[in-house]
Structures are given as structure tokens and as C-alpha cells.
Backbone:
């Protein structure tokens, strides 16, 4: 499977309500060492919500903080994006491209 | 106290980043990432995907992108290896660009350049020496 399949997926809660689309995928380099070279990147969480300019610029990820004017303007949109940990996911229907939460 | 593991975001930090080979020569962009589920049930990024058709697949033209990838795999290189797939452990540096521990001649994006060299440039008179020779 590819990360583009995951990025195109809709996320639904246990009741079937759509929470939005996967906008980004957080990976953490804490997996087993591969090739004797470096630790693997583990898929850790999904950023779900509306696609916004702030997301594409990195304001939803907590990494970009400035300039303050842009941050103020984009703060409202950031509140529509939520982080879904992988432990909250029940299953991923990769044919329908739907991520079902527990 | 254990140092915190590196955290990246696929769309923000990895996708569309410039790839450079072991000599620093540009050799394409990160078009997609391969995910593999391990025995522990967790998903891991196992490869960088880059080359003809891969970006088309990511942009929603999945059937056409997959066809181009298959066709390129059959005609681009003499072996059966998937040169559009670079195992993630060969990404030595991940920053503004991603440095790979491969030669660009081993990468899928080089196949087109080689085809042009073999079928067009090689037929141009004077192609075998510099202009000032």
C-alpha cells in the first residue's frame, strides 16, 4: 500500500459519521533497525480535517509558528484539524478508502 | 533519558522533496511512499517511490499511473528490479532534500534520459566530443 492511498481516505467514527479526510500522516523514527542502518519510520497518527492553506504551510503541525500575523489568521482553521492516533483506528478499508475508528 | 525519536509529516516533510544521489546529482522527487504492515500490526514506511507514473497514481490517475509504471519497468532497464522503488534505509539524509545512497543511473528517472541519449543524441553528428574539440 502507499501513503497516497491513506491520504485520499475519509475517516469515520464508530457511528459512521465522517470526520474529514486524511490531510497528513505523522511518522516517528522509532521502529526496528532496517538494513543495519537506521530505525524504521512508524506511522504514528493521522491529521484529519478540512484541507486548508495553513495545513499546506505547516501551521497545523505545530512546527511553524510565524510570522505571527499569519498564525493569527490561520489559527481558526487549525482548530478544525484533529490528530487521530493509530491506536484509535479499528480498520482501514483500502478499497473504499475509508478509515474506521473504534 | 532516551532521546526523542525523529518526527516527520509525510505531506509536509517527505512528499515532493528533491532526491539527490550519492554524488549530489538530482534524480527526481519523492512522488509517493510505500507502507508495509509488520507482524506487530503497525504500519511502517518501507520505501520511497519516484519515477514515471508514480506521481500520476498519487494525483488520482491510479489506473494510468500503474500502467505507466508497469510499462516502464519492462522497458526502462534490462533487469526486472523496480527502479522506481528506493528502500527507505538508503535515504541517508532527510532535510530540505533527501540524499540517497544510490547512483542516479540506477534510478527510474534516468531511464528516460538514457533513452534520449541512445535514440536521439547519439545520432546527432558531433555528439561524441565537446564543442571546442
Residues:
Amino acid at each position: 500500500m502507499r501513503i497516497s492511498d491513506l491520504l485520499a481516505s475519509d475517516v469515520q467514527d464508530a457511528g459512521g459519521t465522517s470526520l474529514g479526510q486524511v490531510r497528513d500522516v505523522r511518522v516517528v523514527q522509532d521502529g526496528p533497525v532496517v538494513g543495519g542502518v537506521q530505525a524504521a519510520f512508524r506511522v504514528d497518527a493521522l491529521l484529519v480535517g478540512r484541507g486548508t492553506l495553513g495545513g499546506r504551510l505547516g501551521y497545523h503541525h505545530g512546527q511553524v509558528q510565524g510570522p505571527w500575523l499569519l498564525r493569527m489568521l490561520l489559527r481558526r482553521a487549525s482548530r478544525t484539524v484533529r490528530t487521530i492516533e493509530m491506536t484509535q483506528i479499528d480498520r482501514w478499508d483500502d478499497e473504499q478508502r475509508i478509515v474506521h475508528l473504534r | 533519558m532516551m532521546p526523542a525519536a525523529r518526527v516527520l509529516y509525510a505531506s509536509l516533510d517527505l512528499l515532493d522533496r528533491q532526491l539527490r544521489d550519492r554524488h549530489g546529482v538530482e534524480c527526481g522527487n519523492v512522488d509517493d511512499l510505500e507502507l508495509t504492515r509488520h507482524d506487530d500490526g503497525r504500519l511502517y514506511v518501507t520505501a520511497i517511490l519516484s519515477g514515471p507514473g508514480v506521481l500520476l497514481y498519487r494525483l488520482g490517475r491510479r489506473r494510468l499511473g500503474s500502467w505507466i509504471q508497469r510499462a516502464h519497468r519492462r522497458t526502462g532497464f534490462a533487469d526486472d528490479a523496480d527502479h522506481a522503488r528506493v528502500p527507505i534505509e538508503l535515504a541517508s539524509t532527510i532535510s530540505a532534500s533527501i540524499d540517497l545512497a544510490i547512483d542516479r543511473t540506477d534510478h527510474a528517472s534516468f531511464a528516460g534520459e538514457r533513452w534520449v541519449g541512445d535514440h536521439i543524441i547519439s545520432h546527432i553528428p558531433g555528439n561524441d566530443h565537446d564543442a571546442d574539440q
About this structure: Chain B has a mean pLDDT of 85. Chain B is about 25% helix and 25% strand. Residues 54 and 65 of chain B are 6 Å apart (CA to CA).
